[in-house]
Each structure stands twice: as C-alpha cells, then as structure tokens.
Design a protein that fits this description.
single chain; mainly alpha; Fumarate Reductase Cytochrome B subunit; 59% helix; elongated; disordered N terminus
Length: 255
C-alpha cells in the first residue's frame, strides 16, 4: 500500500506505512501525534497504590462507622469480622502514610511535574486566567480545551486541596484517633492527644475524620469522571498517561 503516515522515519526520510484497512475517511484524520514523558515510575506507582489504599480505607472506614449486623450465632470470641475490618483499615492507613511521605520525597528529587501537586503559583496572573479557562471548559462553555503537559491548572488546584491538604488532614486526624488506643504515655498520644482534646474530644474527632472521608469519596468520583471525560474529549491522553507516563497530544496545533 502507499505510505500515508505524516511521521517521517529516522533513516532516509521515509514514511511509516499504515495497516491495510486504511480508508480515505481515515486518511483525512491523520495527524502527527507528539508525546512527552511526564510522570516518572515512582509517581505512577504511588498513584495506583494510593488509589487502592484509599479505596480500602473508604470501605472499611464506612463499615467501622456503621458496622454490619452479626450474621453468625456464636460467641464473640469466634467472630473476628470487625477485627479484620479494623486491621485492613489500619494497614491501608499505614501504607497510605508511608507512600505519602515517599511522594513528598520524590517531589524534591523528581522532575518538575512531580512537584505540581504540592504547590500552587498563586501570584501568577496567567495561571489564574488558565484556571478560569479550564473551569469554563468543564462547564461546557468553551468549545476547545488547551493542551497541558502536566496537570491542567484546575486539576492542580483539586489535587492540592483534596490530596496534599486532604490526605494530611486524614492522616493527622486518623492517627489522633488511633493514639487513643495506644494509651497515655505513648508517643502518638503525647503528640496528637492534645489535638483530639482541642477539637472537643474523641467523638468529635471521629466525626470530622468521617466527614473528611466523604470529601475524599466526592473527589474520587469527580476525578474518575474528569479523567475519562478528558481522555475522550480533550486534545491529550489522560488515563493511559498514568500507566505509561507519556502524554500524547492528538493534534498538531501548538496552542
């Protein structure tokens, strides 16, 4: 078949052939896709492990707040369902916490895009204009989105408040609750016990921790929707980028 791809080969300037089922309609849609390596392996690994940990935390956290009824008629010592739920919650919390500290470390040694989640360029007027532009795109008021290598500005705001600030909040309040079981004199109780007392006691701390869980659940729903929507409607890849690390742009327009 005739070479039709707009991409040139490395040797001899020859075109790479496409598959034999190419039609004239297909030919009209050909563009020169460009790709940029954005998310390094540690960032991608953290993303998926963290997503799994948050899922376990939300499910087990809900069940801790609203326990399932007992379905087995036997002595309490023979039923450890709730114990397993609490263990899964605590284990996932430890994994999330260690991963979060590892993610903070990588923001110092990784590339530019690994730091976007931890800081916002609040004094940059152009950045604020792009935040508004992205908000209009998500509200279906703009017909065409811009192209971004890393997080778009609105996604950067969401990641900062729901992940950086939100996860810090959940880790601190979670360990403040956990410290109560460690008992007086323990390191956790010494450090976080006063915080629990400051908010009004254990019950209040449980309530605000649970509210934080629902905020994370809402963020996860919006995040999944936005990622899939952008993969379909925007001019760059989204979901596959967090798997391969490479952002691929779907058109030749540099704007």
């Amino acid at each position: 078949m005739t070479d039709v791809s707009p991409d040139r080969g490395a040797a001899g300037g020859q075109h790479h052939p496409l598959t034999g089922d190419l039609t004239e309609e297909d030919r009209a849609t050909i563009t020169r896709n460009s790709s940029v390596y954005v998310y390094e392996a540690p960032v991608r690994l953290w993303h998926w492990i963290n997503a799994a940990a948050i899922l376990v935390l939300c499910v087990t956290g809900y069940l801790i707040g609203r326990p399932l009824p007992s379905v087995e008629m036997s002595e309490a010592t023979h039923q450890f369902v709730f114990g397993y739920i609490r263990f899964a919650h605590f284990a996932a919390a430890m994994i999330m916490t260690v991963g979060f500290f590892g993610r903070i470390y990588w923001s110092f040694v990784g590339n530019h895009h690994s730091r976007q989640m931890f800081k916002l360029p609040l004094l940059n007027r152009h950045w604020w204009a792009e935040v508004w532009d992205e908000a209009r795109w998500y509200m279906f008021l703009n017909k065409r989105p811009k192209k971004y290598v890393g997080h778009n500005p609105l996604a950067q705001v969401a990641m900062f408040f729901f992940m950086t600030v939100g996860m810090t909040f959940m880790i601190v309040t979670g360990f403040a609750i956990y410290a109560e079981a460690e008992g007086a004199g323990s390191l956790l109780e010494t450090v976080l016990g006063p915080l629990r007392d400051l908010v009004g006691g254990s019950q209040t701390m449980h309530q605000i921790h649970r509210l934080g869980m629902w905020a994370i659940v809402i963020f996860m729903i919006i995040h999944i929707y936005a990622a899939i929507r952008e993969d379909i409607m925007s001019r760059q890849t989204m979901v596959s980028t967090m798997i391969s690390g490479t952002r691929t742009f779907k058109d030749d327009d540099p704007d």
